Amino acid sequence: MKKIELTKDRNMLFFFGAAIGALLFIITYGTAILDIHYDAWILRSPDIDIKQHYIGFLNFINDPWTFPIGNTDSLSYPHMMSVVWTDSIPGFCVLIKLLRFALPKIPQLFGIFGLLTFALNGAFAALLVYEVVGSRAAAVFSCPFFIMSFTVLHRMYYHTALASHWIILAALLYFYTDRKYSIKRDAAVYALFSFLCVSIHSYFLPMAGIILFFDTVFVNRQKKKISFSMLIPLLSFCISGIATLFIYGAFTSGVEHGGFAIGEFNSNLNTLYNSLGYGMLPELPLARGTQYEGFGYLGLGILVLCVICGGYLIFRVVKSGMKGTLKCLKDHFRILLTVLMGLSFAVISVFPEADFNETVLIPDILPGVIKRLFGIFRSNGRFIWPLMYIIMLSCIYILFKMSSKLPAAAFIVLSVCLFLQGADLRSWVAEKNEWYTEKYDYTGYFDEHGPDHDSFEHIVMTFDNGDLKMDTGYFAAVNDKTINRFYFARVIDKIEQEQLEKYKEAALSGNPVPGCVYFFNGETLKEWEGADLTIEKVNEDIYMGY
Question: By CB neighbour count within 10 A (0-12 exposed, 13-18 middle, 19+ buried), where does 44 fall?
């Protein structure tokens, strides 16, 4: 009977958390962006990344199926490129492509994806707090802290996939859930986590992997018997991740990883209380501008809660003494692992040097070869995110522990902190609401310039121009054309240049590749001088040939 009641509680909290998440999304972003026929809000965005994700998504779903299933050639014709490298949420892309028959030609579904993200963030936050604190009211009251975290708002519709923090919350939930040991179940769940991480964004893979590693340690400590079988779930996690990456085509694209080194986008030690100007607390300096990637501001409400709970912890440590504190950590092994897990994420996020404001406290002395080895996760500042949620969760747990004899006091404190968090977020939410509720129009580049749409099949860009890439990429998706270069998360410069030389040689020899329209700037036009093309000046420094 108790198990049935527990399941009902969890189902109810999942629903309430999801509903709160959906409501907060609509308050922040409005409902206009949920219209699947309206995409001007993306195409008019001042940020290039959301355009990259959307255009990569459109070209993928409108291209024929290939194997591996995540590949498409319309953005790097004739070379295949994986949708993984357009950051277009691979699993979402594949799902929508399967449902393509029921959707319009150009379905704008990023608004709906954002709504689902907020809902799932809320659902798993509510379950996580309930599992740790054991109070339904605490779970409902607390989930807005997780839903409206500053990092989620920072990422949503910038690096849209990276706002899916429900993956982190779900992994923490699995770690804190008491369960009977089952190697088969753990192997299956770990594999599912790995699949979901790669299907959303591969940066979640090591984050979830570290949490599940500590889960493995905890489970096997409970068994009080160490065996090689404890590695099977972790092995399942790794195999599933590699297999999923292969299926999505991440290994077949010929991308260049050279030049990427870990530490370029690390966290600053001030990140947990540095609002970067998004909250009421003052913006603090960074050692490098790229440390914005390690943005982990907790928010005013949580910081106040940290002070309260931190003071209580210091009092308990002083009262118990070092011996008593160590005994407590030994008796409560999961708490010890939580501390070690948080420290692990903190160290990884600031690696390979520690910067406080503009001051380098611990210099980077690692050889370049080692930093490049881990360069695939060069934005390691993002690893601060799990630590943020561990701190939030720990503070809520401590608050209710210290108020166990007077629960009403805990809810009063929580309400005040929630008010402070909302006040800290208010101006940023208002700014986002103003932008996303505005109605925009979009006029494509080829609607103003260029030959008749039916006179060519392929667009060749002879120079690099971010805005033009977005315009031609969108045009390609709408009109079933192909382009030779796009904005990818990993470069394929060598392949693109080799193909461009072939187009150039053909045009200079008097036999240009049929069905192509070419874009030049002043510099590349000189390099193609003598090509058998009709050249028109489009604007100050863009020329078109056909």
Answer: middle
